[in-house]
Amino acid sequence: MSAKIISDYLLAASALSEGKLVALPTETVYGLGANALDEVAASKIFAAKNRPSFDPLIIHQSNWERLRAYVKEVPPAAKLLADTFWPGPLTLVLPKTDLVPELISAGLPTVAIRAPAHPLTRAVLAELNFPVAAPSANPFGFVSPTTAQHVADQLGSKIDYILDGGPCVVGLESTIIGFPKGEPTIFRKGGLAVEAIEAVLGKPIAIRTHSSSRPEAPGMLSRHYSPGAPMEIFPDLSEAPESALTNARIVFNHGGQPMSIQGMTTTYDLSPSGDLAEAARRLFTVLRQIAEQNFSYVAVVLLPETGLGRAINDRLRRAAARE
């Protein structure tokens, strides 16, 4: 089987209704979609991605009203954030109703919900009378896809259709917020900046660390996004090695310096102009390019810890994490 790349959202909706796997474009990354209320269909996601069953999934629908049936309790802060940022790169983790299968929630009493902003996927969701479970459409632990071709390259032989919605405009997965003891807490930094969330809440927000097992929400595992080469983190460019032994470097706001430095060293600048949104869009493309080059070592210079830089650094640290 080889996945068909399509542009017909009605065909995508029909395939999902038949229990098939369909990769869907969102503003963040491409998701691997299946009927979230059909455990047989949803189990195909875990099989295709080789994803462990203890890692829960996010369910997607077109708006708050269509997601409300799947959650028991809604803290005021959750409704405020949904009203402000949906559709968009925000996921909320809330107590689930019995409508949500245990497979989707990984046995947890909560479910992760989101209303994506991509118009093509919103058109698909509007056709369906069930939510769609859709983690990133890549093998578990590897780089998330931001184009239809990325999905075809990594999962094309394991899924039915890929709905092509063009390149993702955000390029980082959604920010995930849970409400332990009623207090909003960031479980995963992502495409919605921490500062924007705090501005709406009117106060600082707590941030959870990652987990090696039994995560509280999707995307919390401490090791992820591996490009296949050992990566080492440096706080600034002056400390990153420039010898010929360095195969590649990932930097930010490099100022237009040559891309080839000292023989074998190749520099990937996430944004020569210092634009964090551009760096977010380019991050997974750069990690993919590094994987294709079979480098034996990559030096990584962290970005400013502000705005989307915090989420980008989160992904870089997890890509560099060792077992």
Which keywords apply here?
single chain; 323 residues; alpha/beta; eleven-stranded mixed sheet; five-stranded mixed sheet; 10 helices; 29% helix; globular
Précis, in short:
The protein has 323 residues and is α/β, with parallel strands linked by helices.
Task: Explain what this protein looks like in three dimensions.
- With 323 residues, the chain is α/β, with parallel strands linked by helices.
- 29% of the residues lie in helices and 18% in strands.
- The protein is built from ten helices and 16 strands.
- It has helices at residues 9-17, 39-49, 64-67, 76-85, 102-105, 119-126, 148-155, 194-201, 276-293, 308-320, and strands at residues 4-6, 22-24, 31-35, 58-60, 90-95, 110-114, 132-133, 161-163, 175-178, 185-188, 206-207, 231-234, 248-251, 260-261, 265-269, 298-301.
- It has an eleven-stranded mixed β-sheet, with helices on both faces. A five-stranded mixed β-sheet has the order 12-16-13-15-14.
- α1 crosses α6 and α9 (276-293) runs parallel beside α10 (308-320).
- The longest helix has 18 residues, at 276-293.
- The relative contact order is 0.15.
